[in-house]
């Protein structure tokens, strides 16, 4: 039997690439250069499966390939707002993602950002590396206590719940939750969490707010200027979800005029381009989209894609089908 043809759009962990090469007629992207929309369109005419990542913008235009050969987009990552859902549906493509295997590491990174912002770790490191540290003093880089404070979590899926576990069990934080559907009482009870109805209800009550909702059009600028103004003047905003969820221009205003305590971002609206205004904000921690960047998660994400492909080509419903 002829093996299905598979295109991997970026470099993946070696063990996963080896398994892909054994199981399929696989073309790897050994140069790891992001593919252009034209190259992606060409790929959809050629390969049975395309394995994209967040750096492949699969817009309606990129997916405008009437005679597509590709039957499955097996996405490497849990978020898939870079894939235009109606266009993929129109082409009859199956889309899968990789949940679960990155939840703990992404929550670890969100907690890292929360702690860095509260304790001014980014400012401290920048000062020290620039040779600007003049020595210990009682008033130097004084931050904000984390333990026992209130954390608001927007989006209480798997990653949001892992964040709650860390914050509540590790730091004794009180947990408030906003989620588009009602959260099962047991899931709240584990962390003594309370669900509120709306984002507007949540924001004024929190010392820290961490975003764990999906990106995409529905949540674009969910955190806008009006909502940033609902935060306490010393509250912190953490975003490990998707860049588009936060209106970066409004965030710059809040940070510049100190109407909030600070923020920490792992994701950006037009990444990898960073708005120059964000770079000017000292009370902002920024990381280059590292949420799932551990050896363990990145390998497990790849093997999860292999599971999804295996099911699909064997005629079984893939476990992580999202479209
Ligand atoms: C991935 C992520 O590394 O899984 C996600 O949604 O944001 C990251 O952890 C990235 O999206 C890979 O495509």
Annotated CATH architecture of the largest domain: 3-Layer(aba) Sandwich
Beta-strand proportion: 5-15%
- Helices and strands, in order, run as EHEHEEHEHHEHEHEHEHEHEHEH
CATH class (first level) name of the largest domain:
Alpha Beta
| Helical residue percent band | 25-40%
Order of strands in the sheet with most strands: 8-7-6-9-10-11-12
Note the total helix count. 12
**Bound ligands:** 2-keto-D-gluconic acid
What's the CATH topology label of the largest domain?
Rossmann fold
Helical/strand content category: alpha/beta
Number of strands: 12
Number of structurally distinct domains: 2
Oligomer: single chain
Q: Quick one: biggest sheet? A: 7 strands, parallel
CATH superfamily of the largest domain: NAD(P)-binding Rossmann-like Domain
Structure description:
The protein is of the alpha/beta class. It has two domains: 5-101 and 295-313, Rossmann fold (3-Layer(aba) Sandwich); 103-286, NAD(P)-binding Rossmann-like Domain (Rossmann fold, 3-Layer(aba) Sandwich), CATH 3.40.50.720. It has twelve helices and twelve strands. Strand 10 (236-239), helix 10 (248-256) and strand 11 (262-265) form a beta-alpha-beta unit. Helix 1 runs parallel beside helix 12 (295-313) and helix 4 crosses helix 6. The longest helix is centred in the C-terminal third of the chain and has 19 residues, at 295-313. The structure holds 2-keto-D-gluconic acid. 2-keto-D-gluconic acid binds at residues 53-54, 76-79, 102, 106, 291-292. The site of 2-keto-D-gluconic acid (8YV) has 10 residues, from loops.
């Amino acid at each position: 039997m002829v093996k299905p043809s598979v295109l991997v759009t970026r470099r993946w962990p070696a063990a996963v690439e080896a398994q892909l090469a054994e199981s399929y007629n696989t073309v790897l992207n050994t140069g790891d250069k992001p593919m252009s929309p034209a190259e992606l369109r060409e790929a959809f005419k050629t390969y049975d499966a395309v394995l994209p990542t967040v750096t492949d913008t699969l817009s309606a235009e990129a997916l405008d390939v009437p005679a597509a050969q590709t039957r499955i987009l097996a996405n490497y990552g849990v978020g898939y707002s870079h894939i235009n859902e109606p266009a993929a549906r129109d082409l009859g493509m199956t889309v899968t993602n990789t949940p679960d295997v990155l939840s703990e590491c992404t929550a670890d990174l969100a907690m890292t950002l929360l702690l860095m912002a509260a304790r001014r770790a980014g400012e401290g490191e920048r000062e020290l590396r620039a040779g600007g540290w003049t020595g210990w003093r009682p008033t130097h880089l004084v931050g904000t206590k984390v333990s026992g404070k209130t954390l608001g979590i927007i989006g209480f899926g798997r990653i949001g719940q892992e964040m709650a576990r860390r914050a509540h069990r590790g730091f004794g934080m009180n947990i408030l939750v906003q989620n588009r559907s009602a959260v099962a009482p047991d899931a709240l009870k584990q962390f003594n969490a309370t669900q509120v109805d709306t984002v507007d209800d949540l924001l004024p009550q929190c010392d820290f707010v961490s975003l764990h909702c999906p990106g995409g059009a529905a949540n674009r600028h969910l955190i806008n200027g009006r909502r940033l103004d609902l935060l306490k003047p010393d509250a912190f905003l953490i975003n490990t979800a998707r860049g588009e969820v936060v209106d970066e221009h409004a965030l710059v205003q809040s940070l510049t005029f100190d109407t909030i305590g600070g923020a920490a971002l792992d994701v950006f609206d037009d990444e990898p381009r960073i708005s120059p205004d964000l770079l000017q904000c000292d009370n902002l921690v920024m990381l280059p989209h590292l949420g799932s960047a551990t050896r363990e998660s990145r390998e497990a994400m790849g093997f999860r894609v292999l599971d999804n492909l295996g099911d699909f080509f064997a005629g079984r419903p893939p476990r992580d089908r999202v479209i």
